[in-house]
Structures are given as C-alpha cells and as structure tokens.
Amino acid sequence: VPVNLFFAKPAVARLITENLGMELELSGPLRLRFGVTPALTASAITLRKGSEPGDDFLTIDRVQVSPRLWSVLKGEFFLRGVKAEGIDLNYCQRFDSSPNVEKSSFEGFGSVPHIAIDHLSIQSIRLVCSDKSKELLLMPQLLNLEASAALNEPVEIALSGKRLDEPFDLVFSTGQISEVLENPSSLPFELAFEAPELQLGIAGSVSSPFSEPEIRAQTEWVSGLLERHTGIASVSFSALVRGFGSRPYIELDTGLDQIDLQYFVGRHEEPQTRDETQSFQPLFEVLSRFDARARVRVGRILNSPLAVDTLTLEATLDDSVLNLD
Prior knowledge:
The protein is built from five helices and 20 strands. A hairpin with a 5-residue loop joins strand 3 and strand 4 (39-48). The strands form two sheets. It has an 18-stranded mixed sheet that branches. By secondary structure, it is mainly beta. The longest helix is centred in the N-terminal third of the chain and has 12 residues, at 9-20.
C-alpha cells in the first residue's frame, strides 16, 4: 500500500539545504510503498543553487529506491535497486557544500555504514551547461548508467552514451564492496573503453587506497584514427604513481608498435610573429612539483633517412632537474 509522504517534504528540503547549501524542490509526489518489496518513489526533483535562471544544478524526472527492509532494521543500508530516469546535470555549476558541514579526514571507512546496491540504473542523463562560455566540446550529449555493488560480488559500472552523435561504451570493475569497506591493502581495478576507431583497456591495482595510495596500471590503446594521422597503430604503457600526500612520483614506460616519419615531414609551420614573449615559467612550475621517470620505446621506424630499426628514449625528473638519455 503506497503512503503519500507530502508532510516529509519540508524536512527533506531543510536537510539538503543544511548539508549541501542548495535548495531542494519536490514538485511531484513522494510515496513510500510497504510490502514484500518496499520502495520509495519521488518525481519532479530539482536541486538548485539560487533563484536565478540557470541556477538549477540537477533535475530528475523520477527516482525509485528499493531497500532491503530487514537490513535497514539491522542498521545496515543494502538496496535491491535504484532506478532513475530523465536527469539534467548542469556541469557548469560549481558544487560547494555548505560551510556548516564539517570536513574531517579519515582513513578507511570504519565510521561509514555498510552500503550495498544490487542494481543501479540511471537512464537518459543529459549533461547541460547554463554558461556557454564554460561549455566543454568533448562532453558527452547523453549517458546511460548501469551498475551493481552487491556486498559479496565485484563492483561493476557500465556507462554508455553518445558524443557528437558517436556511441561509446565504458566498463569499470573493482573488488567486492565488503573488501573495500574493510580498507584493503590492495584494491584491483579494470577499465575498458570502446568507441568508433578506438579501444582502450586498463588493468591495475591501488595499494593502501585510503592512506598512502600507490597506483600501478597496464594500458593498451588501439586507434585507427591515430594510425591514419601518425602511423602509430597501438600504444601500450605501464604506470606507477605514488606520494600523493607529499611529493608525487610518477613512472611511465611507453611502447609504440611503430612510427612513420612521413606523417611528420613538411608539417612544420613558421610561428606567427607575436608581440608578447612566450613564457615557459608555468610549465617549469608544474614540473617542479613532482619527480618522474619515463621511457619510450619504438618498435619500428618507417621512412627514416637514417637506418634506425628501434628507438629508446629515457628521461628523469629529480628535484626539478630534467635529464634526457
């Protein structure tokens, strides 16, 4: 039997304002259905930062949350499913939480209740921008999200959509949610991206993810578009990143199957005369903030004036000193 929770709308809106510093408007019904499969349904939801046009941060046509009632009674938060549709997200609006919200640091998720979702489905996510001067050209037009984070199964997220009327698919997976909540020593992950003329795969792990994380990853990138413009058919590289809390350290080992020099001959253009002098100071400031080591290996060099079969380049960045080999 559904119960109309109209009397709870002001309290929910006040809670959102106090914690997020935004206004919540629930124009549609807010209903709770009891029974074997209880569900909370809300529609016509608007989250905004002000009263001016373009202040809407998020609008949702309809959302339904189906909890596992017995788990909720035990103080846990396990969901059978979450479904949402018709979402407009204004990505040009900055998200600033309320200054009254305490920002505390913590390691792990020891104080956070267990949250698990058997299935999450979000359809028709439209990414909009109220400020055309901040609009991003590469932002997808439409997104659909399917995900699951059951307690004893791997977390999986599948994202599909369109950008410039071209479809793409992205799949991400990691360890079990029960392991994540226990602050594991290592957290594996895999990511696969596919679009017309582009396939990208990443596999790796994060050590000490909630204290001093260290990321290791292996990547394979295949692009028909890249091959037509550079002669490079595939790129593979391994990466190591650590030291986020102090001075970051980055290692990159990149492999190119081949490179065709004919794509780079005759493309150099004389720079136009400009009144102002170009400054490399911003680049130097960025490079001074981390240490790094990089290696690039080319399997074959085509159309080279010199007899070079393979090429290896190495560089190190140590305490703002760049060395090339």
